[in-house]
Amino acid sequence: MRNDAKAQRDVSEPEPLVRIQNLSKHYVQHRPFTRAKFTVHALEDASLTIRRGTTLALIGESGSGKSTLARCLALLEEASSGAIWFAGENLVDLTPKELFHFRRRIQLIFQDPTSALNPRLTAAEIVAEPLAIQKEGTKASRRGRALELMAQVGLPADCEYKRPFEFSGGQRQRLAIARALALEPELLILDEALSSLDLANQEMLLELLAELQAAQSLTYLHISHDLRLVSQCADEVAVMNERMIVEQKSAQELFANPEHPYTRELLAAMPSLESICLERSA
Predict the structure, then answer these.
(1) Whole domain around residue 45: which residue ranges?
(2) What is the pTM of this model?
(3) Cα dihedral 70, 74, 77, 83 sign
């Protein structure tokens, strides 16, 4: 079973692919009418590590700072303070030119593929778009690469000219995965990428992601509120509470022996298999 394979995987590595230290993100806002300024603390002294070739699940309630951390890691947001190290390189020190070339190394897959995919482009054009932005290859070679990726994620061969609205939800997410893989990234950030899908599609995409990870040595940051999914896919789990990382350990150890009170609350609220079956039969 997949859980057994995950438990047996050797995740030890001297230097992690990602190391985040004391990361904070503050937003300055204005109050309506008075225009008085106030500060929103979206992330506060968060620290975590992600080992190369593994899956780190980031869990916590809505508003705890999970997506803010992901956007800072992907350099879509500028952190207020702290450090982000990627493969030993401090991302804070990147020049604009270096940042442009670095972006290919981290790709995001969002919760809603409908809003993340350009409705005016065909499927092949969507997958080839990152290659065009990075000025890689010719139009013909980019199309060929797009078709390879679409086949790799299990999309039918006859869907090259289809547009996003012609796909099912699961197929749109496969299309988003293919686009994210176009630039051969080292890290994929999945921000609630499976939460809008039904159980059958979730299981199929989990298997696809596992196959891609094994074949391409991908590293995943999987943001989720679904502890059932986390237990199936994660090597390690980091728990966020009130904009901070309060606990990080192997998935097996965290589910067996949670230390932080908030982690224990989360696990206590996790529905058991028996309760799910009873709910469905009611």
Answers:
(1) 14-118+184-281
(2) 0.85
(3) positive
